[in-house]
Amino acid sequence: MNPLLNPPDSAHPTPAVLIRGTGLLGASIGLGLRRVGDTVYLSDPSPSAQAIACDIGAGVPWEPGTVPDPEIVVVAAPPEASAAEVAQALIDFPDAVVLDIASVKATVRDELRSRAADPRHELQPSMLTRYVGTHPMAGRERSGPVAARGELFTSMPWVICPAIDDSGEHVPERAAVAWAEDIARRLGATIHYLDPDAHDESVALISHLPQIAASMVASRLQDAPTSALALAGNGLRDVTRIAASDPGLWVQILSFNAGPIKEILYGLRDDVLRLISTLEDPLAPGGQADIAQLIAEGNSGQARVPGKHGAPPQSFAVLTVIVDDKPGQIAAVLQDVATVGVNVEDMRMEHSAGHEVGMIELSVLPSRREELASALTEMGWRVAT
Q1: What is the dihedral of CA 230, 235, 239, 243, to 10 degrees?
Q2: Alpha-carbon distance 163 to 142, whole Å?
Q3: Where would one find coiled-coil regions in this protein (predicted)?
Q4: Which H or E element spans position 289?
């Protein structure tokens, strides 16, 4: 059955999906699709990675010629290999919709167009109507199929980037885009639409820049005295958490999206040089105001980061509960909050090694904060004011 002639609908049976690449994202997609009843086949250049993904239930090995061709092929390859894998899938499976999930989209699009325009390649321009570029904005610091989770994409953004060139050619069939949307929905993701260039500019700012900043801050810790690191709290952990990411993957991401990242780093460089200049003589006229302005600009940018359901963080009030460092305290607090009937919009745990207490920060609607604080205090909890 050709999915291009049968866009997904409530009456359409679950598709057969081939996932080419069984790392964290590929295996997680397999687990999620298997959970909703899809038939999933797995293929990976690494026999061990494929075997692990099969063992955890992400799918079954792809054995060409023994089963019908898949209706959908998901290319879950690293950025440097994505275009070649997409091209081969379009050639090998002439009736299949082919998606890729690479974190950089414009370079994949450009390489596919180049291949299709080159008579030496088997890829034909008409085949590109079955290709849809996508990018699930989800991940973990750990990599490989052992880190895969079927719920990894739940409520996470999944960007769909149908590539259209200036001539209007290479436009994906509407049914192909519908299948891309359907895969995202089956995995519980929220769908967003961007053209490939806008996507790359966006992720350079909201994903690639934080990775660079985290890695550079964490690199300063390599020779830090143990006595200094013993003082570290959640601030340092928050800033450096993603510095544990895979270097090999980030070499590709930063290389393939160098243009947009470079422009952002120019601006960051200007801010750093400005601060260094001010700190050369912080008590000089205007120095204090310049430092305050820099921090205030950060306040303004941070305030624009969406919170739960896309709401700005300021729309919630924070209540801090001090708990003993022993099992069951977090569950007990949340149970008592539920008893009061207040919904927790977000939660954060502040805890440092060596402390005998922890602090649970609960984000709630401002209109319920005082009510909850009073109720928890009466229940015997220590509520910070």
Answers
A1: 30
A2: 31
A3: none
A4: helix 287-302
